[in-house]
Amino acid sequence: MSKVTPIGALHIPGTDIHYAPAIKAGNWIFLTGIEAVDYAAGLAPAVAGKADLPYHGLPRHRREGDFICARFKDLLGQAGTSFANTVRLDQYYPTWKAVDPYHLARRAAFGDYIPPSTSVIMEELLTAGADITASVLAVSPGSGREPKRVSAAQVTAPVWSGFAPAVTSGDFVFVAGQMARGADGNPDPHAHVPPHSLWGGYEIRRQTEYLIREKFIPVLQAVGSSLDKTVKAQVYLRDIADTPHFLDVWNSHFGARQCALSIIPGKDYGLVPGNIEINLIALTGTAKIKKHIIDGCIPSEMTYGAAGVRVGDLLLCSGMIAADANGPIDLIRTGNGLPYFGVSSRAQMNYIVEATKSVCAAGGTSLDNIARIHEFHTDLNEFYPMHHAWQEALDGAPVPFTAVRVPATMPVPACSVIVDSWIYAPD
Question: Based on CB atoms within 10 Å of each CB, which residue in 40, 195, 217, 246 is the most buried?
Answer without folding.
Answer: 246
